[in-house]
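Exercise 7 asks you to align residues with tokens for two separate proteins.
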Amino acid sequence: MLVYEGIKQGFINDVLTDNITRKIHEKYQKFFGRSGEAQIKSWKNSMEYMYKVLNDNEIPDDSGVAIEFNIPSTSKRVDFMLSGYDKNNKDSVIIIELKQWDTCARVEGRDGLVKTFVGGGFREVTHPSYQAWSYASLIMDFNESVQKELINLYPCAYLHNYKITPTDALVDEMYKEYIDDAPLFGMGDVLKLREFIKKYITYGDNKELLYKIENGKIRPSRRLQDSLKNMLNGNKEFVMIDEQKVVYETALDLANKSYNDKKKRVLVVNGGPGTGKSVLAINLLVELTNKNMVTNYITKNAAPRNVFYDRLKGNFKASYIKNLFKGSGMYVDSEKNIFDALIVDEAHRLNAKSGMFKNKGENQIKEIIHASKFSVFFLDENQKVTLSDIGSLDVIEKYAKQLDAEIQVVELESQFRCNGSDGYLNWLDNVLDIRETANYNFDFDYDFKVLDDPNELKELISEKNDVNNKSRMVAGYCWNWISNAKNNSEIHDVVIPEHNFGMSWNLANSSTWAIDSDSIKEIGCIHTCQGLEFDYVGVIIGEDIRYENGQIVTDFTKRAGTDKSLFGIKAMYNRNPEEALKVSDKIIKNTYKTLMTRGMKGCYVYCVDKNLQNYLKEKLNNL
């Protein structure tokens, strides 16, 4: 999706007539919602500099111009693109990352990072050349037109307010490989940037290449469970961008320091669904293991570990795999600092006690910090889905202090699931009454449908699954798991009589429901899909969440008796009804948001409560 597109001459005219900022702003508002005053000023400033650069007769008037191009399957946008053909008539697209910076410092020990004044303070960010290169790499990865038609991408960065000197931090030797890949231009470099453009664009294309990129077929996003083997073999499967790169380099640096000086350090990474937490966790596992650090990847939920094991068996020894991937209750009796690094994914799912009967140890967070020199917790407190989930920033901070560990907290914001649609996530928060949000619009890039019949939902997901076995049905846990149906998909647990619909919960004899070829015949729940992702997900919303008297209501009494997520809520209700309703309301809403964000490309929904179904349709139609 392009916020602004045209040809060079049209862009020149829009700048000359002072219309360029208005046009960008209007289109931006339509797709992304409000933009701040600082962003509007940056458009005005940067576009006037780009006018200076392009105001050259040797740059074809009919070269394509694009501003704020949304990179497929992400929430990131390219500032400026120019398209055309080189002297040999080869397709060329120049990607320009524009910066308002006027100061910068090196960051020692962290590859590809610099420090500059952004967002009201001095922060570590990716080097502009790294950023431009990583954006070009993402477009190359996701866009089939770029690959099949051999469209050449040439990234660069233009810091028009920044005077680059020969001894400047930005051009330090440590950044050379990134500057070689994406040249850097600063204040006074208009002529140099022009020459860079003219090197690759000799003839105009009347924005034809931009059209091919914008409308080209998008390659399916890589799924972590499919890329795991290559990652453990040392292959780079995922390009880390922006704050992902910052978090990764921060974690490596802290792990190295703790390895050398034996001082405890803790890193907390806050990030919502689809921000790449698990990808970062696996990348860290690979890198730290390659450095001969004794490292574990930890998840409380067994489903991801079982899928990872299945994907890796036959390529690595079983003992090697099981020594890498551990459950969260394995550290009750661990010695102090026995591990160099412990990487905790889905840290919000950690429990206080361990063991089958939850009677071992004191607190899993405390035990993990105790057992490791360096620990990193990937956290999303809005994905707590049971009463026993205790993972939170407050608890991590408490035990870090108690165990004399330095602690640092960082944020992940880039969106890679749900087709990169921040708008969809904001919309979910709004319609499920999790929090009031604005700026949601996802109709252009995420496939969401509300269906009237669960059989239609099943049929649609089955059709999607026929393509590559990467789509699944899931449901809220509002139907009991029939004991004699645990190994027979013909005995139906989830039954909706008015539609003559019935399916079985995922079978007990499979711990790899997410990837098994016959799993499309079964329905998964929160416990079998959290931490995993699919292309499309079909969600049946049970009676535990309804729409009544103009508002969303939740009802823990509609949860199945076989579901242990809310075990103890009735006793809590008897002691403190208000607190019990508050806690169960959050868990139920978190559960459905988690289910509805498992799909990378789309989510289809059926609601048992017809009022809720109509409410979702109305909200969808009002987008």
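Second protein for Exercise 7:
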Amino acid sequence: MTEPDPQATATQPPAADTPPTAKEPAAPPARPARKARPARPNGQWKVDGTAPLNTNEEIKQRDDGLNVRERIETVYAKGGFDSIDKEDLHGRFRWWGLYTQRKPGIDGGRTAQLETEEIEDKYFMLRVRVDGGALSVEQLRVIAEISQEFCRDTADITDRHNIQFHWVEVEAMPEIWRRLEAVGLQTTEACGDVPRVILGSPVAGVAKDEVIDPTDIIAEIVRRYVGDPSFSNLPRKYKTAITGHPSFDVVPEINDFSLVPVTHPELGIGFDLWVGGGLSTSAHLAQRLGTFIEPSLVPDVWVGVTSIFRDYGYRRLRNRARLKYLMADWGPEKFRQVLQDEYLGYALPDGPAPAQPTRSGDHIGVHEQKDGKFYIGAAPYVGRTSGTALLGIADLAASVGSDRIRLTPYQKLLILDVAEDDVDQVVFGLRDLGFETHPGTFRRSTMACTGIEYCKLAIVETKQTATTAIRQLEDRLGAFADEHKLLPITLNVNGCPNSCARIQTADIGLKGQLVMNDEGDQVPGFQVHLGGGLISEQREEAGVGRTVRGLKVTADGIADYVERVTRSYVDGRDDDETFASWALRAEEDLLK
């Protein structure tokens, strides 16, 4: 809408026969026309130039995060925590998988009130990137031994199939890196504004129903580009997921760059490209570009999409610096055009949409491989394990002749290549180590983030809270679930609003916050999200679910709530209706 010109009326002279009088003062002087305020730059390098527009961008331009490795080894490991430059500590350390962890005893009510220096401990969380989720027995042994010697026996399997340690001292980092790199593992760019760990199908190369094996493709991208300064200063983190399995077992809907398998009627087997997914506090699902990607072209296409993010991604405001916001503004058609015209130099062929999955992608249970052996998937409690348990798993795998362990994006673990005669030995051995091959409905389908135990952003505890709720629910609803043929109801527990545990895409997602209990006291609790989900054998489209005004639960009331809403679902569902479908249409009173 065009603003009226103030000079169009205010400065017109009066008619000669009606001079102004004392009662009719002359019109005031005209105001100049208002100029449109220039749009503020978004910090897009190809549009606005590369001058940094905030402190984070200044830090990254002053010194590449990759360069801090030398200082850690030669200065900080010798001088200890207090010798660390604050700009390195709170910025560049992330490029090597290191974050300071939360100081014990600081409650969730103070999370947003304290400065980083007040809330952080002198110990680190360390992520080991496990690209494709693939580990050998030797690699798992080294991880387990590092956990035991340097990390107080801590080890979590994350929902990006990293291994996450705690209680790491900077003095130990040179030796930790030496041991990891001696067996082909790394922490390079496990965190930071960089290409993070690449999710890959944990059954790549062995599943009977696999369409294409992307193992070599993932390895090639990692070899060529992880640690490459060309991509060590992205606007923010950048997540990749590549699978050749028809179950979509790498959560492609919520990654920046995702490939799932398709068969083109003329070009054969390849991949369908999805771009711009991400959750955090503002959920966006990845969008198909409608292209068919030949396997040999995957690295080049990955470089093209990653380069678009580097060059056109928004850098001025950090809360808008993810690729999902650029995709939301451009749309898939423009994104594809820019990819082809500016970065690839050729057009990509149109491709068919992938078929809907026909089975679960968590790979829990005993499954026959294409070579007649078996892979066995097992669930710990919400990814929590230990170095001692992982060492036991390495020994167990070796005892039956397996050299391949896999981690999953669902905080689970698989042992591959098990002979039929050894299946029971592995199943019972995993159980003894805290991993269940035949878990109940809720142990199988519950995930939890790190929570207040170690995370500086968290408001509530998650791991033990979720584990307690699982045990209570399996006592109360185990037989009920079998009787009513309940499919696993996903329960994702997050300690803050940032959705590391993917709360928006769960049947029941719990977002940590402080809530009021029945006595009017403020206690740890959760806001409830309902009806979210990823594409699956039961669901044709992914969705982020709904919230119900005022629907919150206390941390110790999770099991009571989940039991109540599950029973309401069973009473109110239509035939084989899923929990998510019912939750999206149910009256609010039935969801409370």
